[in-house]
User: What shape does this take?
Amino acid sequence: MLTAAVVATDAKSTSYLRACVEQTGLTESVVEWAPSIEQHPQPGESIPDVVVLDLAGGTEVSLEFSAHLRRLRPTVCIIACSPLKQPDPDLLMQAMRSGVREFLAHPVDTISLEAALKRIMEEQSPGEKSLERKLIVVMGAKGGVGSTTVAVNLGAQLARLTQKRVILMDVARPMGHVPLLLDLRARFSLRDATGNLERLDSHFFNALLTPHEKSGLEVLAGAADPDEWEEIAPSALLRVVNVAQSCCNHLLMDIGSTYTIHFRQLLRVARMIMIVAEADVPALWTLEKHLTKLSSWGIEPDQCRVVINRYHRSDEEAIKAFEKRIKHPVFARLPNDFRQVSEAINLGTPLSRNHNNPLVSNFQQLAARLAGINITEQAKKSPAIFGLFSNSSKR
Assistant: This one.
């Protein structure tokens, strides 16, 4: 991942360039500077890997600033954004002497900028900075298997256990139910993100989120009307995900049980695709079809995780036979607790961490596995968070 700065003389240009940079998904941090040698970089402030420089505010001042940055850090990669679609040769020569590596014409589009950033990354030493995947997609093998319940409770447990920032995006079709399961009144939704790509940077994205105070989970609400999907392009979803990943430590996405080939690129960039099913014939049959389709899209088997929801011990024989047939292990089993889950859904709250029962325990263990947390060691350091496990071990 790259560090970046956007340099412009006005707030509108700064916001637009920042949105373009963050939507590439190739940067871990972005700062905003003015083309002032006196102001930037400030004492003790490092120069980022990439600087996106807007020439519209004045070519001479901007190129002087570019030369200044190049003197301070000769390896900095400077991308100039010119109001001229075809800059004259004299300007190009002057820009090159000032340290400019790439030229992009206004208005800058994310695809061209992403290509330039990828060229820069390829020039870096192998393994120096790799892309960090934070996206975990939760999908149902079919409707009604409880994938949204899994996404909500997994997100809540991740936020509680890690004490870090966890975001849950509701991308289920035709309508999203995540806010209902958390009793949230969302002012903004996914459509507000995809419909404002020219403004979509981390600041704008954060303003669209609805926090769940008790768990610490933050939610980007989904569609409240099926017709909203007519205005949401899959390519826009990928750009929203790129910005979201720059804002958090863990990013969950509930996509329900419906997707098309247009979601292929989005699924391919996921760290993990968690497919929720029950141990019955229709769900397992559909699950196998999903795994086959995802494999045909170039998604590695290790990227997919099978979660059996509403698990009973009597399901074990069918699960073992299924694992043997598809040569793919079940990642987790979430025991059935219809009464508690129904109560939590109707109350609009995650499953309580104070319930000493197998379902909550399994959600907590699943979250710990995804976060790379050793429950035993962490329980000693944070007994209040892990009280569930310490209480269980004494019984």
The first strand starts at residue 2 and ends at 7. The CA atoms of residues 140 and 158 lie 20 Å apart. The radius of gyration is 24 Å. The domain at 135-393 is CATH 3.40.50.300 (Rossmann fold).
